[in-house]
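worker-3 :: picked Accessory Sec system glycosyltransferase GtfA
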Amino acid sequence: MTIYNFNLAMGWASSGVEYAQAYRENVFKKMAIDNKFVFTELILNGNIFDMAAQMGMSIDNVLPIHFFFTDIMPAKSAYTIKQLEEETNLDVTTKKLMPDRVTYKDGDTLIRANFDRIHGNVDFVDYVINGYLVRKDHYTNIKTFSEYYVPVNNQAEVYRRAFYNKNGQIAYEQFIENEQVIYRLGALILYSEFEFVDYFMTQLSLTSKDILIIDREKYIATAVLNNKGQAKVGVVIHAEHFSSNQTDKRHIVWNNFYEYQFTNANVIDFFVTATQKQKEVLAKQFKLYKGINPKIYAIPVGSLDKLRGKRHKRDTKHLMTASRLAEEKHVDWIIEAVIKVHQKTSSIQLDIFGTGASMPKLQKMISDNNADDYIKLMGHKDLQEIYKAYYGYVSASQSEGFGLTLMEAVGSGLPIVGFDVPYGNQTFIDDAANGFLLPFSTNSEESIAYLADGIEQLVDNSRQDSFKNTSYQKAEFFLEKNNQYLWEKLVKEVTHD
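worker-3 :: tokens ->
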């Protein structure tokens, strides 16, 4: 038996979907089930195996389909500058070392060897001739693929990619023209990304004991359903699955990420929601709008190996939040709310963990408000042992299908302040018992005011010990042993139908 988990891509600031996959891998490992995490999009901004390892995943279980058709094995970035110089015969007399790269000059040719962000080895090498980028070679512990460019309107435009075997010979090629992608694998020609994924599926030799789990959809579900054979297919729901403001008693508007799977629910063997409440909502909607009763399992997308920090000293009035630093997470609202509370409670502090596109904007907001002393951007960190040092956790997201950081926060006894929205906050916060569920508003000023009020109640709360104990009680359900039992039950049921 193999469980294949299908996703689009992974990044250095991955979303909850990838972290949910990392948790799931750990459960399958304890169940002694072979599992693979399939990524269908080509990663160009770093080594996907380093990205996976950063999240605690085994790189041997990571299966980017663009590597599948080569004999190159999963590897972290290990190709050194010295190897590059020796194997490429670079003129080291023109070598110039910079913080993130090394450059070499050879007449009209400029060669830029860019470091990977973890090990300081070679990530990719640019070849620039007469000011134009003509080629880019990508590396792990070996050269994996090359991109070839042509100048179009003074911009470098990729027109071909060559993917290599270990011996340096071309395994297959990709050609790009006017946004159309064509693959050539020996004598086989594939005329789109969909055909490429579809062909990959045919090569898996699936059996009735295999399970295919779709985490993200973009031409993946069609290829999976077309080629599943006797394997079972499941869909994990990672977010709100419908648009409430466009839904009435006769019609429902599904989330685009799940519309194809829901439309074809009759051939999906099971669905997985992260919370019991979402399972109940989805089951009622399938019955009402489609007249079907598919199998739906409520299994948390994460789990706790143990409860932490029961005897750890907390830093009074020191709060934290953790997420991708993206607009939809509304971390800026948290900053503004803490600034408001600081006017009354000068001892309040906030640490913000995570990285993302909003980081420069958030730092400017902090500095412009002279809040650098009590609000800090902490970057990406392994938070497992960090939560327990804090007094409380704040969330401003208005859309959380689960909320892995919320689970980890209660697992370290933190009370939480967040909006009363499905499904994560309502799962982890019992209002006035281990935190505060705040009124929901689409008006940002009102939302900031609600956050400030909730934070003020939290830091002035005389029931801190009671709040902490309630968080620990809620966290018990999310221990690994319970999560593993739920997956064992699912696997047994769907493979014995």
